[in-house]
Design a protein that fits this description.
With 213 residues, this protein is mostly helical. 49% of the residues lie in helices and 6% in strands. It is built from 7 helices and 3 strands; from the N terminus they run ααααβαββαα.
Length: 213
Amino acid sequence: MYRTAMVDDATPRAARVLVARVSDLFLMDVHAMLRLPQADVGITQACNFTIASALMNFISGVSVTLFKPPADRRGTGRKFRDVVTTFYPWDAEPANGITNAEQGATILYETFRNPMAHALGFQDSEPLGPITITRFPGDGFTEADLEAIEGSVNRPDALLRQAPTLRRVDATQAIELNAESLYWGARELVRRLTADAARMAAADAYLRPMLRG
């Protein structure tokens, strides 16, 4: 069964409500899609693109509500990059992937988020190598696997098969984004962000009037 995104114990109520009522709508759908593919019922699609798109939208929403409100159209690209640079768990990434926070945030935004949101994934300008969103081969996660991932503060390397969120293949200049690792990373971003008392105080003041009841 889906487990709500973890937040810091001191997270104020309005931020908790946002995560539980709004943010989890994105993550619940991703949870379901990570059960795919299911060969035994004839579902062969793995929803790579849709999972990545939903997670990018989730991070973007977090960046303008919890990280740096208000949720207007000003500076959204900078907010996305800044929240990913500061709170995405780059320090937990495997050594064979991209571990530099600023580099990783720039790639996520410029290579994946912005083209996926505005141009059906087309790149401007032409990338140096192939751009791919990967899923693990075979059937999707079991419910037990997903519950373990969703309850992990430390990176669940065995379940994530040591796959980094982002990997650059030097020989071809290909860039790969792994959907499973991005799922854990996006959830961990929220947990780390909610431990920032100053940002949560600002988010609480912004959100409180809109989340009554």
